[in-house]
Structure formats: C-alpha cells, structure tokens
Amino acid sequence: MRIDLHTHSTASDGTDTPAQLVRKAAATGLDVVALTDHDTTRGHAEAVAALPEGLTLVTGAELSCRLDGISMHMLAYLFDPEEPALLAERELVRDDRVPRARAMVARLNELGVPVTWEQVARIAGEGSVGRPHVASALVELGVVPTVNDAFTHQWLADGGRAHVAKHETDPFEALRLIKGAGGVAVFAHPAAAKRGRTVPEAVIADLAAAGLDGIEVDHMDHDAQTRTRLRGTAKELGLLVTGSSDYHGSRKTCVLGEYTTDPEVYGEITRRAFGAFPVPGAGGA
After folding, report:
1. CA-CA distance, 218 to 141, in Å (whole number)?
2. Backbone Cα Rg of the chain
3. CB atoms closer than 10 angstroms to residue 6
4. Is 96 helix (H, G, I), strand (E, B) or coil?
5. Regarding beta strands 214-218 and 184-187, do their DSSP bridges make them parallel or antiparallel, or are they unpaired?
6. For residue 285, what pLDDT is reported?
7. Percentage helix, strand, coil, to 5, in the chain?
8. Could you report the per-residue pLDDT of 215-269, keeping only the tens digit for each?
9. The whole model's pTM is what?
10. Around 274, how many Cα atoms within 13 Å sit in the side-chain half-sphere?
11. Which of 31, 110, 225, 254 has its CA 20 to 30 A from that of 52?
C-alpha cells in the first residue's frame, strides 16, 4: 500500500480542488490519501463525492499552533468535524486569517511592493487565505522567483519584515481538542528549520506525555540526517512515525506520494481514532 497522509486543496492553500486532488492521488497510484487543509474541513465533502474506486480517503486538518513564539502545525486525523470545542477553535483561527493577510499586504506596501488585497483574494479564491497566497502574489509581481523564496526573513517568514502573527492554538490545547473529538494527533514536520525556529526535542517529549500519537518524519523539509534523528526520538518516546508529501499542487515543488507512511502505522492510526472512519472510494463523479 502507498499511503500519503498530508495534502492540501483549494479549501486552504493548495491549487487543486478536493475532487482534482483525489483523482490525481488515484492516478499516482496511491491507495490512501489524507486531506489535511489548514484549520478547515470544508473540502471533505467534495473529496468524498469524487473519490475514485480503489482509493481510501482519511479526513483530517492541519491545525495552526504556537508555543513560546514558535509556529507549529498539528495534523489531526479522523476526528468528529462537528465536535463543538474543536470546531470553535478552528473557526477562531480561520476568522483571523483575513485581517492578518490584509495586514501583510499593508506591510508589503510600506516596503514598496505594489501588492493589493484584491490580488491576494483572487489567488486565494474560496480557500482559507494565508501566507502562501501572499507569497504567490509576490511571485506574480516578480519580487521572488518561487513561493518558497517568499518565506525568508526578508519577506514572510516568522519574524520577517512583512510577517504578521495570527491566532494560533497552544499545541497542548490542540492535543486536548483533537483527542476530545476522537482524533489522532501527529506533529507535522517538527524539524523543518528552514521554515523558521523549531521547538526543542524536550517539547516533543512533553507532547508525547500529553497524548501526542506521532511525528511526521519523512517530509521534504527533513534531510536524511534529520529523519534518522527523529526516528530515534520517536522510538524513544513510543511515537508513531509517518511520512507524507505535504502536497500543495503547483504552489510547491513536492509531488503526491513523494514520501509515504508504513501500512502498519496507518492501521494503528485508524485503530486509535473514533471520531470518524476512513472513506473507501466507490467511483465518484
């Protein structure tokens, strides 16, 4: 089995619609794909409706967290999307996205970049607006060559000249909410240093003690040495090890199935979850 547990659609900051994403996943030869848009489950229904036969969908979300000023992302799998406490927190995070993006546009204008809110809103479309949409606007204007090049201290990285903080959940509170909604929690790309500061491994140990299920080890932002180190950390703490593409369509260079999760780990995730169940494809439209 080929299992990719971290992808994004136009419901957040990907460029493929949920339907396009699941069709591409099937065409790529994946057996299981997780749709984990940022702080939203809005793409799940479309993905389920279009799910090709032979492909299983894991519903999820990537929750925006922050601890001691450091940005973190928590992958939540197979939780109840209507559970009130987690739903309220996702809405709180999502509602802060528009004023934050507008503030980043204003800062870029102060730096002499002629980006407009209308341009960013057009790029975001129906998705939850975020930094990747602002970054795409910078690419359109020729300010940077790629989206990744916008995530530097010169522009949009944490602490960068045009960065604006948003409401983000304490990761320990995120764990409590995910578990309360019957989900499984995996710390996404925990050592992706080129994205900004990362938490020390002592924090991972504290999260494990608080109920963290796993860490995303095999990821494009982890080199071979980092992956080896994280595997050792996971073994020491009794955490599951996942791998995934973090696919965003054409917005990033990663491809579906670039990294995958072991079937036994996937099986353990499904055994631990009780908020929702994987959806087998029945040949969607």
Report:
1. 33
2. 18
3. 28
4. coil
5. parallel
6. 55
7. 40, 15, 45
8. 999 999 999 999 999 999 999 999 999 999 999 998 788 899 999 999 999 999 9
9. 0.86
10. 4
11. 254
